């Protein structure tokens, strides 16, 4: 959206790919070595690429963490997690606007002749994000305060919860590299039953077996919880789908959450 037609873009991770577990292929390494600019999250989202990205940066390549200019005070602390902060910043649209500014500045530095075009594209995109935020707020107003509890496969929605006033619970931790055991499943099922939570959500990039085990454990206690929908957490949808863009992904998530938890 910012680069427009001046840049040939290669996304290493396709739809449905879990970035926490992604392992670089030989072909992807060649693409990185040939790139003029490399953008990555910077908060240990791409955990298995950390050393490679650091080495490319030391070799003088323009390797840019899109979270670089975000104030640390705005990041969610994750004590004990490598990286120190929750990397899922895109669910806070104000923070994501800061990432857009960083991307714009780096593209202009790499291609000064295109600076005006990048800036104009950035302004258009930021206006779109502002409109997306207004729409999301209008939809999520349908969820009453006592139902604003979002239960998902892993703890990817902390920024979403903070932005929109939801309590967020993930069966797995911030990274899908952590695994949930039987005790975790039972504790979450107990919580659903005690709080009378009507719906839980699976994720497109995370296997759904453990969340379905939570559902069955809650039902065994007499609580009829439902699968509220499938959320896009760490990856977009297929390119030809409505969720194949950032805005489409965000709208799909908001619609699913408002539909399942709203009155």
Describe this structure in words.
Strand 3 (149-154), helix 5 and strand 4 (167-172) form a beta-alpha-beta unit. Helix 4 runs parallel beside helix 8 and helix 6 (182-195) crosses helix 7. The strands form 3 sheets. The protein has a two-stranded parallel sheet. It has a two-stranded parallel ribbon with strand order 3-4. The chain has 263 residues and is of the alpha/beta class. The protein contains 8 helices and 6 strands.
Fold topology:
Layout: H1 26-34, E1 37-40, H2 50-58, E2 62-65, H3 93-110, H4 115-140, E3 149-154, H5 158-164, E4 167-172, H6 182-195, E5 199-203, H7 209-220, E6 226-231, H8 246-261
Parallel strand pairs: 1-2, 3-4, 5-6
Strand content: 5-15%
CATH architectural name of the largest domain: 3-Layer(aba) Sandwich
Query: Tell me, what's the shape?
Result: globular
**Fourth-level CATH superfamily of the largest domain:** Nitrogenase molybdenum iron protein domain
Number of separate domains? 2
- Overall mean pLDDT stands at 89
Annotated CATH topology of the largest domain: Rossmann fold
Strand runs, count = 6
Helix content: 40-55%
Instruction: Give the neighbour order of strands across the main sheet.
Output: 1-2
Sheet with the most strands, sense and barrel status: 2 strands, parallel
| CATH class annotation of the largest domain | Alpha Beta
Radius of gyration: 19 Å
Low-confidence stretches: none
What's the helix-strand series? HEHEHHEHEHEHEH
Backbone structural class: alpha/beta
Give the N-terminus to C-terminus distance in angstroms. Answer: 35 Å
């Amino acid at each position: 959206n910012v680069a427009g037609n001046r840049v040939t873009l290669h996304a290493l991770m396709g739809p449905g790919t879990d970035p926490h577990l992604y392992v670089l292929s030989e072909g992807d390494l060649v693409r990185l070595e040939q790139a003029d600019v490399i953008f990555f999250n910077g908060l240990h989202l791409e955990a298995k690429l950390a050393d490679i990205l650091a080495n490319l940066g030391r070799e003088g390549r323009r390797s840019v963490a899109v979270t670089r200019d975000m104030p640390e005070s705005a990041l969610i602390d994750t004590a004990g997690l490598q990286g120190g902060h929750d990397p899922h910043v895109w669910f806070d649209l104000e923070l994501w606007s800061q990432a857009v500014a960083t991307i714009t500045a780096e593209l202009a530095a790499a291609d000064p002749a295109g600076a005006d075009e990048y800036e104009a594209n950035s302004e258009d995109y930021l206006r779109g994000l502002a409109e997306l935020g207004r729409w999301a707020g209008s939809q999520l107003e349908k969820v009453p305060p006592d139902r604003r509890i979002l239960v998902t496969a892993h703890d990817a929605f902390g920024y979403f919860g903070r932005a929109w006033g939801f309590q967020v619970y993930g069966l797995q931790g911030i990274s899908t590299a952590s695994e949930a055991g039987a005790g975790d499943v039972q504790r979450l099922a107990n919580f659903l039953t005690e709080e009378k939570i009507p719906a839980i959500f699976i994720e497109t990039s995370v296997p759904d077996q453990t969340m379905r085990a939570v559902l069955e454990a809650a039902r065994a206690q007499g609580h009829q919880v439902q699968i509220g929908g499938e959320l896009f957490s760490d990856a977009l949808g297929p390119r030809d789908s409505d969720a194949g863009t950032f805005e489409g992904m965000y709208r799909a998530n908001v619609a699913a959450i408002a539909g399942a938890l709203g009155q």
